[in-house]
Amino acid sequence: MRTEIVERPPILRSINPATGEILGEFKNMGEEEVKEAVKKAKKAQKDWGKIPIKERGRWILKLKEHIRKNIEDIADVISKEKGVSRFEALTSDVFPILDLADFYAKNTEKILKREKVKIGVWNIMGRESYIEYFPYGVIGIISPWNFPFSIPMGQIIIALMAGNTCVLKPSEFTPKTGILIKELFKDTGFPEGVCEVVTGDGLTGSYLVKSGVDKIFFTGSTQTGKIIMKTAAEHLVPVVMELGGKDPMIVFDDVDIDITTDAAIFGAFFNTGQVCASVERLYVHKKIYEEFKRAVIEKTKKLRVGFSSYEPWGYEIGAVISEKQLMKIKEHIEDAKENGAEVIGGEIKDLFVKPAVILNVDHSFKVVREETFGPVLPIMPFETEDEAIELANDSEYGLTASVWTKDIKRAKRVAEKLQYATVMINDNLITHAIPQVPWGGVKNSGIGRTHGKEGLLEMVQVRHVHTNKLGQKMRAPWWYPFSKEKYEFALSLTNLLHSPSMKEKIQAFLGIAKNFSKISKQKLNE
Q: Catalytic annotation on 276?
């Protein structure tokens, strides 16, 4: 069993939750060590930020190739530190980064190119504007244990392509994967300081927020996110937060039951259910509810629970990450039983939980209201489209949702009414692996976005450059000194630009012509 941190020790132990094997020991870093890492990153950013985007892209493609060549070794580290199969670690944590690296290496320059802006009437007054982007400086990344490679590595790559450097604080449960990330950058030949890693517990994370970083990206629980936001606000550090989820799956009565039950089981139990985008609420149309739930129950019983260091595909369900997480899962299962629900599965041995299907529940149950983050699937019936929408939206969270039907028109109609940042039609879980589209949540599921154009723009600040091409040739008519002629000019200009009457426009033009020569000669020193 994994030992929880009660007092703050000087050392963190990385432990395989499936076997209890100690994988390594890492510093529980203090405030000065965090500040030193940020100092190194700030120094490195001065040069890194000057490198052309195309060259940064070449660095990222070198990193991509290094990851590809070592993909099984990387997956093995992740697998052991999370206590899940190597197949799962490879497909969910490593493979998506190859596509992400490719996308940003090849598209960042286009997305961040200088953009000329049409400024309406100001264009005809000898003026022009453009928008350009520049890096924040140092991005602080506080990452979770459930995807300890893909989440921080993706954010690091995006940050570096935008010209920032990074300091990563991995979860205290997965420090070895965090150090692995730093080693990958070092082995690829990146300049020192471009990607720094500080290992430690939550206190180390708070030190990072206060250390002088220019922006924080946090992925984790809503509760912890609020604490980080409070600390960040005290230092005026902007944040992007991807927080919890209680994601619904809506199944209409025209689906292929065999395919859709497979999808529901995968969506609920993948990564031992420890995914912010897991299917945590399953709503099935009343017409097929009985048949659907029977199929889910029978298929769930066939899932293999365990861990193997030798056979990457030997088990579908690995260990829960910690005793603390196990207690949350157990609490939800016990609450359901005490309130009259039927629980199929859910047996616990060490840090392994047999996937549980829970029936006869409603929105008063903890397992329906609160994020479980474990291999638990409550199933509920609905009768109408409107009822399904109402049930799905009845949550404080808004990360992802999915709609399942052969009627795509209906699916899109439902999607438009769901209060979620991502809605999938006949699919689930996959969207975090698509780098071209934004990722994030609404309501208590987060603030801001990662991935896509939107995620890249979170990594940069915006500069507006405005040019008055006549600025050295004439004075503006609204400068000092104020005068009767300037006042009349202002009224005439207003009518010329905005009056719906052609007669008033003509009169305004004559008024401007009358006063323009006078006001252009008026000087403050006369």
A: yes
